Amino acid sequence: MPWSSSALCTPVGACRATSGNRMAASSACAIFPQPVTMRCDMKNLKPYSSGIALGAALALSPGVEAQDQVPVQITEQTNQVGLGILSAPDYYGSTKNEGVAAPLLRYSWDGMRYVQLLGSELLLNLSAVPEWRIGPVVRVRTRRDDDVDDEVIARMRPIASATEVGVFAAYHMPLDPAQPLHKLVFSADIVGNTNNVYDGATGNLRVNYMYPFQNPVMGRPVIGSIGFGMFFASSDFTNRYFGVAGSDTPLFPELRGRIYNAESSLTSIKIPFTLSAPLNKEWRLTFAGRYERLLEDAKDSPVVRRRGDADQWTLGVAAMYQF
Questions:
Q1: Residue-level pLDDT at 48
Q2: Nearest-5° angle of CA 274, CA 277, CA 278?
Q3: What kind and span of H or E run contains 152?
Q4: CA distance linking residue 118 with residue 278, whole number of Å
Q5: Would you list the domain boundaries of the chain?
Q6: In the prediction, which pLDDT does 76 show?
Q7: Dist. CA 255–CA 152, nearest whole Å
Q8: What local confidence, expressed as pLDDT, does residue 222 receive?
Q9: How many distinct helices (H) and strands (E) make up the chain?
């Protein structure tokens, strides 16, 4: 049984596991020091409305420009809020990166269910089963316009910001009863566009391996993670972001006046990775990154092959306050 985040509701300096596994509790507490003070009286809170409202406000704040989920793992043993500073492609398929600020939040009101914000992705876990996370997800995929470095892409017809709504599910499989943070996480999501930027759906299949290092690094307990993911998209999505037609065709002389239609496919594979360590009882620091390889029609598009790069990198650091 995974260690429960209900251990947050313990006296100052205390830590326990609801499963009764003292070794697991000791391991979790070593990696996630408890805040100096903690109160557990939440009867007067409205967790659903307040958590979602805060997450939505942060998600729509300026500076959230990543095309995909921010590659930061927010550990589930404490509530956290913070900010990530990342270098991310300035449009999907770009060869140039730009600085991006991404708000981060995880808030649980009962130790199981929670709201989580990763940059422009907001999700709500409604599952009270320790191994499962299930619920709705909302994303904002930022616009592509003339505010990009590439002079040809800047002259293409703009693509509006896309709001995406769908569902997600994740299964957390413990690998070591004595180390509840040592686990595999299998997850999937599917979303559709709500503001007519594209038709059809997009989806992700992911597996992520989390490992708490047994020996401290520079005196700090470190958690590492690495994963593998596949991104699928509809024909209309792929053609919207990677196709070339109409007034855009003359911008690519190699097409000789022909249009380029991009079809639905396995659009990309992704390899995310993180290293996270506590700075003190309240603060954590995470180094995060993701390599994404565009495939098939996305890779062969003139937008990528001539003007961009099929190899997409996102790298950054995040500071999180635990409460």
A1: 46
A2: 145
A3: helix 151-155
A4: 19
A5: 5-322
A6: 82
A7: 14
A8: 95
A9: 6, 12
pLDDT of residue 254: 95
* Spatial distance between the Cα atoms of 189 and 176, rounded to a whole number of angstroms: 27
Average confidence (pLDDT) over 257-271 = 94
The confidence score (pLDDT) of residue 28 equals 44
Give the model's pLDDT for residue 244. Answer: 98
Chosen CATH of 5-322 out of 3.40.630.30, 2.40.230.20, 3.40.50.150, 3.10.20.30: 2.40.230.20
Q: Which two tokens stand for residue 202?
A: 């997009």
One-letter identity of residue 78:
T
Query: What DSSP string describes 14-71?
Result: ----TT--HHHHHHHHHHSPPPS------TT--HHHHHHHHHHHHHTSTT---SS---
User: What's the longest Cα–Cα distance across the chain?
Assistant: 72
Average pLDDT estimate for 166-188 = 96
Pairing status of strand 114-118 against strand 132-141? unpaired
Tokens of 89: 């492609």
The phi, psi pair for 122, rounded to 5°, reads -120, 130
pLDDT digits (tens, 9 = 90+) for 209-229: 999 998 888 889 999 999 999
**Would you say 159 and 147 are in contact if contact means Cβ atoms under 8 Å apart?**
no
Instruction: Report yes or no: 285 and 318 within 8 Å, Cβ to Cβ.
Output: yes
Q: Give the model's pLDDT for residue 5.
A: 38
